[in-house]
Recover the amino acids of this structure.
């Protein structure tokens, strides 16, 4: 990002046509800045799924920096493989531990992600097997913390026409 910011005044002063690579880097920079601005305004916590639409811009900016470093280094470009290898090794370690954690915890059943929608819909279908005045005892923390989530699913998934007997 810093490299693109530092090069921008030169591009403006020369008033020359930018290369496709430079256009792509500027677009990536502005995309990252807009996301940071909007996330700040909306006070969004950064979880992985918030980057689904813009993850590629960070890859483009990293590629742009590595390309500039390789061009600058010339024959010393082989030195780039040392930090690149360290980065790849760290990513492999993080990915391996993430896979192990997801496996041990039986998925990402934390409050930020919760139980998948299919299981919640199955629970609502099971609730709909009984009359609407049957008592409901909730043990699912997401529905306890956010009762509107259960209510919305109950309204969206209409019960079958014949109602079953009252549960005790």
């Amino acid at each position: 990002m810093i490299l693109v910011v530092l090069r921008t005044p030169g591009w403006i002063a020369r008033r020359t046509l930018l290369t496709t690579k430079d256009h792509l880097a500027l677009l990536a920079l502005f995309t990252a800045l807009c996301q940071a601005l909007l996330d700040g305004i909306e006070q969004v916590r950064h979880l992985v799924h918030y980057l689904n639409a813009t993850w590629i811009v960070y890859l483009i900016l990293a590629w742009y920096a590595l390309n500039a470093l390789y061009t600058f280094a010339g024959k010393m470009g082989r030195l780039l493989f040392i930090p690149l290898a360290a980065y790849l090794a760290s990513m492999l370690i993080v990915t391996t531990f993430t896979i192990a954690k997801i496996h041990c915890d039986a998925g990402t059943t934390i409050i930020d992600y919760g139980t998948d929608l299919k299981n919640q819909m199955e629970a609502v279908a099971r609730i709909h097997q009984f009359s609407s005045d049957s008592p409901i005892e909730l043990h699912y923390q997401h529905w306890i913390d956010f009762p509107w989530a259960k209510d919305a699913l109950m309204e969206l998934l209409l019960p079958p026409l014949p109602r079953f007997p009252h549960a005790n």
